[in-house]
Amino acid sequence: xxxxxxxxxxxxxxxxxxTRLFRAGVPLxxxxxxxxRLAEYRGAGGLTLxxxxxxxxxxxxxxxxxxxxxxxxxxxxxxxxxxxxxxAEVAPRLAKDSxxxxxxxxxxxxxxxxxxxxxxxxxxxxxxxxxxxxADFRIVHAGRGQNWLGDPLKRQAPPWLADLDMADIxxxxxxxxxxKLWRKLAINCxxxxxxxxxxxxxxxxxxxxxxxxxxxxxxxEVLRACDQPGAADGLEAEVLRIIEATxxxxxxMHQDVQSGRRTEVGFLLGQACRAARQHGLxxxxxxxxxxxxxxxxRRHGLPAD
Length: 305
Ligand code: NAD
Ligand code: KPL
Fold this sequence. Notes:
It catalyses: (R)-pantoate + NADP(+) = 2-dehydropantoate + NADPH + H(+). It is an enzyme of class 1 (oxidoreductase). By secondary structure, this protein is an alpha/beta fold. The chain has helices at residues 12-23, 35-44, 80-90, 109-116, 161-166, 177-197, 209-225, 229-232, 235-245, 252-258, 269-278, 284-299, and strands at residues 5-8, 28-31, 47-51, 54-58, 62-63, 71-76, 94-102, 121-127, 130-135, 138-143, 147-150, 172-173. The termini are far apart. The site of nicotinamide-adenine-dinucleotide has 27 residues, from helix 1, helix 3 and strand 9.
């Protein structure tokens, strides 16, 4: 029998994973942040997943971080800026040889967790699935996509990937997970800040090809300096392809700013600029973009990191 999963963060992506694992019969517990949230969850009767317009309630067992049972497999489904603090709350329960699965977008939060809990195996996940919260504990599965899972320190795939097969969660085991995460980070850096600063849908960015070209050029240099040449190859062409494919959409960062939610800028553009500095690389376009974005975020009363 597979070890139980603990899902930390019952938001959009955590809810999407938890409901699919639960209905496949995989043993699972949600970890909610405090007694009030646990009471609200119990009042809701569970997590509701809405797929293709049909909604279904899943009464997944839930507990607080300080519950007693050891945690063998922890899926961290918080935002990047909350991930380390959230793991710290359950860290005393981590079993020897536990695994921590990290769903965060961008980079930086994963490395902090690897460094702080070296006895756990950390699996990094890059997801292109789409989900959002219609209301508390009501999750809409909004877009099909893929999940790449990988461990930069150890190539061997874990046996519990069979749980994902049972749950019909799309995935691939990636030997080059850092390549996947850096590539997605670079794409997000090229598109999302410009969409916020121009207050526009992705497609309108095609009206300003020159800034996009210069950003992709600097991002490719950063990727190569970080020893990710595969993530750099053909970056501009892919950015343009994604802009065309998502022309009618507002980027996730644009949606966050419009809704007054904190962005993950510190783990996206902030991370690219930090990596450039660490490698002694001059990136004036990226630095100026970060500066303008941070000014706008502060004007909206949002954290700039
Ligand atoms: P979300 O805000 O919907 O959910 C995060 C949840 O974590 C919230 O319910 C929050 O209350 C909870 N949380 C925060 N701190 C906690 C703590 N200490 N203990 C317990 N719970 C805690 O976020 P999301 O959209 O699911 O995003 C999660 C990550 O996945 C992000 O890095 C995001 O970029 C990435 N991602 C999301 C999507 C998507 O479609 N939503 C797609 C790809 C990647
Ligand atoms: O991932 C995205 C986002 O909005 O966060 C896309 C659509 C690819 C734009 O960067």
